[in-house]
Amino acid sequence: MLNEPLLQLELPGIRKLKSGKVREVYDLGDRLLFVATDRISAFDCIMPNGIPRKGEVLTQISYFWFAQTAGFQPNHLLSQADEALPAALQPFAAQLARRCMIVKKAKPLAIECVVRGYLAGSGWKEYRERQTVCGVKLPAGLQESSELPEPIFTPATKAESGHDENISFEEAARIVGGDVAEQARAASLKIYKFAREYARQRGIIIADTKFEFGEFDGKLLLIDEVLTPDSSRFWPADQYQAGRGQPSFDKQFVRDYLETLNWNKLPPAPALPPEVVAKTQAKYLDAYARLTGKAL
Predict the structure, then answer these.
(1) How far from the centroid of its chain's Cα atoms is residue 290's Cα?
(2) Which of 112, 194, 267, 278 could disulfide-link 156, Cβ–Cβ 3.0 to 4.6 Å?
(3) Strand 147-153 and strand 111-118: pairing?
(4) Within this chain, do residues 202 and 234 fall inside the same structural domain, yes or no?
(5) Facing residues of 215 across strands?
(6) Quick check: 55 and 64 in contact, CB under 8 A?
(7) 30 and 114 within one domain
(8) What's the pLDDT score for residue 17?
(9) In this structure, is residue 211 part of a structural domain?
(10) pLDDT averaged over the chain?
């Protein structure tokens, strides 16, 4: 029997700053509280029912990658994965357990830092039209899901609602400044290359991913979630074959189901049937187990 998903969260006495598609952000004075719910969205619509334990998976995978990369990339974490909550949050311990992070109040960059190692999604569509991805010229003859000769940094604008928009590096530099853009690009590529090699040894191909960075005390910090099935395209390595779309560990299964319905992709979204919820939950839990070597 599946646990009940956490879809809405209220913490009386704790000021909520922001409510996203998945995350709730609260103000703890000199720190922030990030909480990952079990909500799931597709086609920019939040589904009425969620995926039990999804928020736990996203948070624990993020903790894992923050720990793996802390030696070469500073991040915003102030809490550790199994650390006790501060006194003010203890009344909410059952709701927050394993799905929250206490972090520094970094100022987020106004760009998404995307790294692509394989040709998929909007990148594959652009390549077919112009042999480029976000303006980056690529060799001829690549197929859908082909590995790129080298990973590429393809920034995007941040959209409060709807889709982020791919932009050139030059445009990113205009938005955040040349030095900061250079730092973000170098950090993004370094983290991705490290994580890709690590994940490959554990049966997962990280095709592409999206990082968030923020500025704090003059330093660039890795913030938000990192290298999760929500922010990345994870493929099972043993099923990989260039020339077609790949099975994945993310919400593609939900999207595929929704595509079979007579739904116009506008709110309200249809409820997901139990078998779709169960299979999606299993994919998230499998991704965690493969990456960390232990069950959640």
Answers:
(1) 17
(2) 112
(3) antiparallel
(4) yes
(5) 107, 220
(6) no
(7) no
(8) 96
(9) yes
(10) 94
The residue with tokens 């206490």 is 102
How distant, in Å, are the alpha carbons of 71, 167, 193 from that of 219? 15, 24, 22
pLDDT digits (tens, 9 = 90+) for 78-106: 998 888 999 999 999 999 999 999 999 99
Residues 194-252 have pLDDT tens digits of: 999 999 999 999 999 999 999 999 999 999 999 999 999 999 999 999 999 999 887 87
pLDDT at position 220, please?
A: 98
Distance spanning both ends of the chain, measured CA to CA: 16
Q: Both 155 and 34 in a single domain?
A: no
Q: Among residues 42, 65, 40, 43, which one has the least CA distance to residue 52?
A: 40
What is the C-alpha to C-alpha distance for residues 288 and 294, in angstroms, rounded to an integer? 8
Q: Is 221 helix (H, G, I), strand (E, B) or coil?
A: strand
Phi-psi label, residue 45: left if phi above 0, alpha if psi -120 to 50, beta otherwise: beta
174 and 207 inside one domain: yes
Q: What's this model's pTM, rounded to 2 decimal places?
A: 0.94
**Residues 177 and 217 occupy one common structural domain:** yes
Q: Report the DSSP beta bridge partners of residue 152.
A: 116
Q: Are 199 and 228 in contact (CB under 8 A)?
A: no
Q: How many domains does the chain have?
A: 2
The answer to whether 59 and 99 are in contact (CB under 8 A) is yes
- Residue 270 domain flag: no
Q: Do 82 and 129 lie in a common domain?
A: no
Counting every residue written for the chain, the total comes to 296
Q: Report the pLDDT averaged over residues 153-178.
A: 87
Would you call 212 helix, strand, or coil by DSSP? strand
